[in-house]
Amino acid sequence: MRTLFIAALVALLSSSWVTAMADGQGFAFKADGSEPIVHFTRLHHRVADVDDHQELSVYADGRVRVHTPSYMKNPGTFEYRLSDKAMQSVLGKLEAKGLMSFDQASAREQRATAAEARRAVDSERFHVSDLTATHITLNFASFGARNAKGTPVRNDIVWNDLPADALRYANVGVIAQLAEAERVLLALTDHSRRNATRITGGR
Q1: What is the mean pLDDT of residues 120-124?
Q2: Domains plus CATH for the chain?
Q3: Could you count the other beta carbons within 10 Å of the beta carbon of residue 181?
Q4: Cα 77–Cα 82–Cα 83 angle in degrees, nearest 5
């Protein structure tokens, strides 16, 4: 009986959840930190280097892992931690930018409509050849009301040339907000301003 009780307790702890509050919203996610709750990469297509992307992983326990590619200042892989308050702030900012409910198909339709409208007015041609590719993955057990018993969130967002689209289609709110969310994540990749530990690379 004691063995069964211990096994049940271990199972309960291993599946436990962390709940964070941000701007009145509840986020629930796995407490074991086995996979990131936010994962972000930014690929630079015109960089002729195997190491061609920035990468950010944010875990439930506040751990942050950052990879800075070799062509950027202070390259390597680093880790630091966010305080509970800082974690809440980051999640609140991402939620405020609509990242939790971002509908990629709808955003692409809005972009196409805006592009057609511009062509009809001034016949202008605008082309950027895939300078960057943004990929954001969200992995929350739930998001919603204060009790954090909302809808599960697993969202994969892939967008080419987001900075250029944000400038070109500034009147398309969802694209502007996605670019603002990317800036929030890019700010987290700046490990130089944090008490970060180098894991690999660099000197």
Answers
A1: 65
A2: 18-200 (3.30.1560)
A3: 24
A4: 160
HSE-CB for 26 with a 13 A CA cutoff? 15
Specify the pLDDT at position 116.
86
3-state SS, residue 39:
strand
pLDDT given at position 95: 87
According to the model, what pLDDT value does residue 88 have?
A: 84
Q: Burial of 60 by CB count in 10 Å (0-12 exposed, 13-18 middle, 19+ buried)?
A: buried
pTM over 0.90, yes/no: no
Neighbours of 42 (CB within 10 A): 21
HSE at residue 143, side-chain half, CA atoms within 13 A, is: 19
CB 44 within 8 A of CB 132: yes
Helix/strand number for the chain, H first, E second: 5, 9
Distance CA 24, CA 146 (A): 6
Q: Greatest CA span in the chain, whole angstroms?
A: 78
Is the predicted pLDDT of residue 93 greater than 80, yes or no? yes
Asked if residue 20 lies in contact with residue 26, where contact means CB atoms within 8 angstroms, the answer is: yes
**Radius of gyration in angstroms for the set of CA atoms belonging to the chain, rounded to a whole number:** 20
**Is pLDDT at 33 greater than 70 in this prediction?**
no
pLDDT winner (highest mean) among 10-19, 63-72, 147-156, 171-180: 171-180
